[in-house]
Amino acid sequence: MKLGRRDGAGIVAKPPKDKLGLLIYGGDAMRVALKRQEYLKALLGPAAEEEMRLTRIPAGELRREPALLMDAIKAVGFFPGPRAAFVEGATELVAQTIIQTMGDWQAGDAQIVISAGDLKKTSKLLKAFEGNRDAYAWGIFDDPPDRAEIEKLLNEAKLRADGPVMAALEDLARSLDPGDFRQTLEKLSLYKLSEPDAPVTLDDIAACAPASVEAAVDDILNIVAEKQTTLIGPLMRRLQSQGVNAVTLSIMAMRHFRTLHRTACNPGAPIWGVRDRDRVMRQSRDWGTAKLETALTILTDTDLQLRSAGQTAPAMAIIERTFIRLAMFGAS
């Protein structure tokens, strides 16, 4: 059964204990790991490891010993409670083993929980979970946490935020990777230890928010936003030599231009996740709301092109061409 974002969040929060299991996959390993941790904790409770109700099986080991998964789901534990067999980093190389084990699964066996990277629509593993009414498949994409997820994280951190502070946290969540956002909330929780009943303020967020997001690509984003077309090519070659990939640049460019757009729409709003707020404000004023909306459309089209299964052109060439196009458009 295929899950959408809202259904997936509900299943992770309250996993049905009578189902075969869950496949959770996506290109961002951190996002996938965080959701998988939430699912297993909600399904098994905090003491699952100590009570030996959770069996972890790396995909490489499963490939060498295909019987490991079957043994794990059929094993009878010493402690009462739900059990799970977790296969980490699954690929098509172990798909057939997992599918065969799914065929032998019966009520009362341990749940099968699988994490994987990006899976194509033609993936045998993905089709097996989506086509089984007793199993779930949830793709984790690069969407930032929504308001409900942020409120849940705040409750877990024993924090309270209202009105403009919640709006600021939503902006911050759009600027940070999920792991960084969670760490920021943990830092906020420690910061507020001396006043546990007081709500979070904008000053609290300013004190705890990271000074920069992915500083390695800040230079290219500022060059594009400041329309310095001739500098794009040399810096792109340097970034490529350092191992920065096109999808990362696409994601960070989207975040940067969204920040510029929010600032243009609401000049007095707080700006999070940037090193130089004055520079961002200057860029925002220089572009204006209308041009920034067009820039975001261009970046969205590029992001879809980079993720397309039929894409054959070099990814870095695509994103470099988009950056040059944006700089020229901004200067027009």
Description:
This protein is of the alpha/beta class and 332 residues long. It is built from 15 helices and 6 strands. It has helices at 5-13, 29-44, 59-64, 67-74, 95-104, 124-130, 147-156, 163-175, 178-191, 202-208, 218-225, 229-241, 246-265, 277-307, 315-331; strands spanning 2-3, 21-25, 54-58, 84-90, 111-116, 135-139. The protein has a 6-stranded parallel sheet with strand order 1-6-2-5-4-3, with helices on both faces. The longest helix is centred in the C-terminal third of the chain and has 31 residues, at 277-307. The radius of gyration is 23 Å and the shape is globular. The mean pLDDT is 87.
Tags for this model:
single chain; 332 residues; alpha/beta; 15 helices; 57% helix
Portion of residues within helices? 55-70%
Largest sheet: 6 strands, parallel
**Number of strand segments:** 6
Tell me, rounded to a whole number, the average pLDDT. Answer: 87
Provide the β-strand percentage band.
Answer: 5-15%
Distance between the termini: 49 Å
Number of helices in the DSSP assignment: 15
Q: Specify the structural class.
A: alpha/beta
Anisotropy-based shape: globular
Provide the low-confidence segments as ranges.
Answer: none
Major sheet: arrangement of strands: 1-6-2-5-4-3
Helix-strand string: EHEHEHHEHEHEHHHHHHHHH
- Gyration radius, in Å: 23 Å
